[in-house]
Amino acid sequence: MRKRGFDFQSRFSHTSINDGGGSWLYLVEMWSMKRIRLVLLWVAGVLSASIPVHAEEQPTLAFSGENIEEGACAVFLDGKLAGRPDKQQLLGAMGLGPYDESKAWTSGPGIGKRRDFLVVFRTPVEIGTVVSPSFQGPDVRLLGTPRGRFVSILKKDVKGDPEVSDENMWLVLQPGHVKCLDNAAETRAMRFTCIGTEERAADHSNADARMRPVLVLRQRMFDPLVVGSQSSYGNAKENRPEYWIQTWAEPRLVAAIAVWYSSVADVTVHALAESARHSPALAAEDEWLPVVKGSVRPGAQLVVLPQ
User: Fold this and answer.
1) How many CB atoms within 10 Å of residue 97?
2) Geometric angle at alpha carbon 51, from 48 and 56, rounded to 5°
3) Is the pLDDT of residue 193 over 90?
């Protein structure tokens, strides 16, 4: 096994500390039951485990809670101010603290088609990647206007306060749950937009009305599952550990795991040994080498793999 990351295959397992039922799925949108999301990240430009990765390339969050201008953050419903989040809502939404579904940042009780969640920074922050399973758009563009659920960053040359409805101010990031910028960019604000096909109220079934957790990284990172595959085993309903196994045709250096979770759980990461005689699905326990073990809290968080 390589000194850092996973070699050939990897395995994740978790054991729920809270007994609560519900199926455990990859990239699930429902947060009302016990759910988990796993997103793998590799360093941009690293195509093989034989290429060295330096310590400074380890993924780190692009900012902390102190970088956020809380009083300037807001949510807009069809272009009109609909409310402002409190500190805990902001921290949970940006992967900087626990995320409480019952107290999440929402667009309020109003009815509308478009919702913009605006996050403003005290000073410009450098962004290389946005990991956002709930904002995988834009889906389509009509007359230059993006649709769906998508992420934008304020253009560097914009002066004054950001206007969420002025598309000329914003750079809309590419589709996908791992959005790697062509080049790391500095920005003073981020916009998380949900545009539905019809006007809707902010009831619990309307996922657009809630700001779902995201992770914003300083480095440019890719999702290695784009060139790999994933399978799962186990049964969380019976309170038994469930496993996710990721495989690649060639060795990959995985730098971190991005985890979205609705409860508290133990998470263990293993890598299949180079000397393993069996396929990942049939490998014995002693053919899996431990990489990292820890616990996760509700919300989004980054689990960086050790060197």
Assistant:
1) 20
2) 115
3) yes
